Amino acid sequence: MASDREDQKPKIDDQYRDHLVTFDGPDDPPNPMNWPFSKKFITTISYGLTTCWITLASAIFAAAIEPVSAELNVNTETSAAATSLLVFGFGLGPLVWGPLSELYGQKWLILIPYFIAAIFAFGTATAKDIQTVLITRFFSGLFGSAPITITGGVMADI
Transmembrane residues, as ranges (predicted)? Predict the structure, then answer.
């Protein structure tokens, strides 16, 4: 099995070898390919759920557009902008999180932004005006896009 992995290695020019991150041989335990099935399973479920919950956050507000409009005395188009701003944050986030995950790793660049997105979600829930709702939804999308952006790379690694 190790020989199959050796055959699949890409050819790299000598000038880039100093920048190549490798493991200590094909059987190195920190290599995600060598993790036991249980660790791979838990990792897959954990990252899958974080992606699922933040994606759900983009649509869940749609049911609350009319009550939010009534509560904050704004029209429904203004309240609907909260969903648009969250999705706009989803669009901008990968421009930040993708390159940072290449530099600093994946684990902390999913956990920290996801936690910050949750804080902004609480801000949305406790908002007293529409401006707060719109701003917190945008930042929830911006920080919440980290799991969506990075989870594919995590799955490819294991």
Answer: 41-65, 77-96, 108-127, 134-156
